[in-house]
Amino acid sequence: MFRHAAEDVRYLANRGFPKESAIRFVSDHYCLPQAQRHVLFRIIVPDEMAHLRRSKLQLLEEMRNRNVYVDGYNVLITVETLLAGKCLYMSDDGFLRDTQGLSRKYKVSEFTERSLFEILGILASVHPARVEILFDQQVSMSGQLAVGVHEIMAKRGLIGTARTVKDVDNQLKILDGVVATSDGSIIDCARRVVDLPAEVVRRRGLELLIIYD
Description:
The protein is of the alpha/beta class and 213 residues long. It has two domains: 2-44, no CATH class; 60-210, 3-Layer(aba) Sandwich (Rossmann fold). The chain is 49% helix and 14% strand. It is built from ten helices and eight strands. It has helices at 2-13, 19-30, 34-43, 47-54, 72-83, 112-126, 142-155, 168-174, 184-189, 196-204, and strands spanning 67-71, 89-90, 96-97, 130-136, 160-165, 178-180, 192-194, 209-210. The strands form two sheets. The chain has a five-stranded parallel β-sheet with strand order 5-4-1-6-7. Strands 3-2-8 form a three-stranded mixed β-sheet, with helices on one face. β2 and β3 (96-97) form a beta hairpin. α1 runs antiparallel to α2, α2 (19-30) packs antiparallel against α3 and α5 runs parallel beside α10. The longest helix has 15 residues, at 112-126. The radius of gyration is 17 Å and the shape is globular.
């Protein structure tokens, strides 16, 4: 049933129907619970927009000698979700997404340190010119997390910093470099984007939930 619902929402979205309206209409028809409606919102992307976003995806090697800016909580939460064995989805635009929506409620977990080592290990392996990891200042304990991440970066030999800012999304939309995120609004504004959680999946040989036609 859920796969059929995804096909119907995708059909309507590709024919100009507003995505939110399409999801509400189809979800009501199939009597989908709120959790599945949220999944549809995260993974369904109209074809034209999906094609444009895919065109911005960079290969890992293309970060070499470039400035890389990381959407801190977006990337970290997705990798933690992966390591915790929870559901991740490959969205229509080619980006890996979780569906938990935890960024404002984020708390350090048993998977945080492992996730950071995975993320920073990947970055260190491609030798970017500089890395900046941005965390939302409004989230509790962000300052302490940024300090800890900066220390790990130094140990990994990564040039750059981890810091908190009030408007992560807006800053990432205007920075000139490769942006690591799966946030659709940021991807739409960025010139080059990399999907670090997807690289973790590839390195670990894991499978994803893919909901296509």
